[in-house]
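Database export, one record per block. Field names are fixed; values are copied verbatim from the stored entry.
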Amino acid sequence: QTTVRELAQLALHLWRDYPDFYRYYAQKDFTWNKISQRNRNPLLAMDIGADGLAVGASEAAGFGIVGSLSHNGTRVIAAMSGLASDKERAEEARKLLDWGVRSFEKTEIFARDEVVGEAQVFGGAKSGVTLKAKGPIDIFLPITNRDKLTARIVYDGPVAAPVEEGQPVGALRVWIGDTLSQETPLFAAESIGVGTLPQRALDAVKELAVGWRR
């Protein structure tokens, strides 16, 4: 059984990783083997910029739809099911996409190559390694709840030396209120060699005496 959340994730995957195929979902009709077919997605007929994606219906799940559009360079995807009719499906999908466009704002919280934080290193020439993402870290914030954003770096630590630049280390988790909004992988921004014998001995004492905070 597939959830509407999984359908939305699949839609994002199709748009992001298969753009040459995704464009077919915007076609209002097509002909194959001399047989013409009409796209049953009602959003394509509305003046909202929709370019996908699919509709379906069953006795158990009711009328469902996965809708998608681009607004000012931002991709908005909405998925729903359990609607009572084709008309209700079309109207509620339009409302949800419109709400997504008006109620959220794309915000860059870390620029490309910007240091996000640091992870502790065990037995290294330095006690910590700086971390960064592969690119900028963007998040879509509710316009009315921008002050409820919190973030935390998580990793299995301390990280054992040596550490290679680009090595996966952990992730940045971002919450909006009590909801985990996204998780972005973090990588070592530098290489850390193995420390001297005294440095490694001191780290071992710390591990035995007080443990490590993560």
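Remark 1: The first strand starts at residue 29 and ends at 32.
Remark 2: The chain has four helices and 13 strands.
End of record.
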